[in-house]
């Protein structure tokens, strides 16, 4: 096994403004929103630590100092590093580019408002098994139910990715959705322009068009705290006995 596989790295995009959750997020970043009696980030970091990750890099921006103060340099035994957007928010891909000095050769990227009831290491194992791919994205067959579907899958590849608004007309070809966890090779981030605002959807779209983005189907629905409905759904799930067994 390669040395970097012995201590897998998670990179958490936690710098967004959280506009859909205002006024909650005017003074509290989404990563720290209270969920079932704890900051959301505590739930996420617990899952990553239990999964076996060796460290987490938090890409912060809006109210980033609050995240540092709350989480510190280690949480649940998981060492934490921080990469700050700086004075200008850089978007999800721009934040990854800013974090380049901290990135492992292969890492798992996830969102700081997503809680995923699956094996977080699975995308990394899939990418490791397919050296010709540049990324493996977990996908969920959503068919427009939980949010606007944005992904077309063909075999074991993401055939097309298109970020869409929730009120966009349905596209039958886009029957899956980005689950919120993607294994990436560092070289993908190295190729991005430095200090340039850019969304990660541009990276997903490019990798899919080049046939270099694998699809990893996941059966369980995702949860998120980027909307009031999402937060309520997650609190209900965390309070259920099944969720407690899964976390244990």
From TrEMBL:
Stored CDD domains: NTP_transferase_WcbM_like
Domain MobA-like NTP transferase positions: 10-141
InterPro entries per the UniProt record, alphabetical: GlmU-like (IPR050065), MobA-like_NTP_Trfase (IPR025877), Nucleotide-diphossugar_trans (IPR029044)
Keywords of the record: Nucleotidyltransferase, Transferase
Domain of life: Bacteria
GO molecular function, one term: nucleotidyltransferase activity
Ranges in a coiled coil: none
Name this protein carries in UniProt: MobA-like NTP transferase domain-containing protein
Organism: Sorangium cellulosum So0157-2
């Amino acid at each position: 096994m390669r040395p970097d596989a012995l201590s897998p790295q998670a990179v958490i995009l936690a710098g967004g403004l959280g506009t859909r959750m205002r006024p909650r997020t005017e003074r509290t970043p989404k990563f720290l929103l209270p969920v079932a009696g704890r900051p959301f980030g505590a739930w996420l970091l617990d899952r990553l630590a239990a999964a076996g990750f060796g460290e987490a890099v938090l890409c912060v921006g809006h109210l980033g100092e609050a995240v540092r103060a709350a989480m510190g340099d280690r949480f649940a035994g998981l060492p934490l590093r921080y990469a700050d957007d700086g004075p200008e928010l850089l978007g999800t891909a721009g934040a990854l580019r800013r974090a380049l000095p901290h990135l492992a050769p292969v890492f798992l990227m996830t969102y700081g408002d997503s809680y995923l009831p699956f094996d977080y290491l699975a995308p990394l194992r899939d990418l490791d098994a397919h050296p010709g791919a540049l990324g493996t994205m977990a996908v969920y067959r959503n068919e427009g139910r939980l949010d606007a579907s944005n992904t077309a899958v063909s075999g074991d590849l993401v055939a097309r990715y298109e970020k869409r608004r929730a009120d966009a007309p349905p596209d039958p070809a886009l029957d899956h959705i980005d689950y919120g966890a993607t294994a990436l090779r560092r070289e993908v981030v190295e190729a991005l322009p430095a200090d340039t605002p850019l969304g990660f959807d541009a990276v997903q779209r490019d990798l899919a068009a080049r046939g270099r983005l694998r699809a990893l189907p996941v059966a369980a629905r995702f949860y998120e705290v980027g909307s009031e409905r999402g937060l309520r759904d997650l609190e209900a799930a965390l309070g259920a006995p099944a969720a407690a067994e899964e976390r244990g």
